[in-house]
Automatic annotation (TrEMBL):
TM stretches of this protein: 7-25, 31-55
Record keywords, A-Z: Membrane, Transmembrane, Transmembrane helix
Identification of the protein by name: Inner membrane protein YgaP-like transmembrane domain-containing protein
Species of the source: Rhodobacter ferrooxidans
Gene3D superfamilies, per database record: 6.10.140.1340
A Pfam family matched in the record: YgaP-like_TM
Inner membrane protein YgaP-like transmembrane domain mapped to chain residues: 2-56
KW Transmembrane helix (keyword) present: yes
InterPro entries: YgaP-like_TM
Amino acid sequence: MTLDRSVLLFAGVMVLLSMALTLWVSPLFMWFTVFIGANLIQSSFTGFCPAAAVFRALGVKKGCAFE
């Protein structure tokens, strides 16, 4: 799996997890979803993604988006 797909998978899992936590634990977990969305927006403008940096440090091979 490439870095690009790893980041997309991670973002999708985090959104679903935050929505499940919002539904079953507390409505305040909606702020977790807001944080994920804001991070996706800022990384689209700046090209910096903290998750990509972590995956890169773990040795996931680069894809075409995060070079």
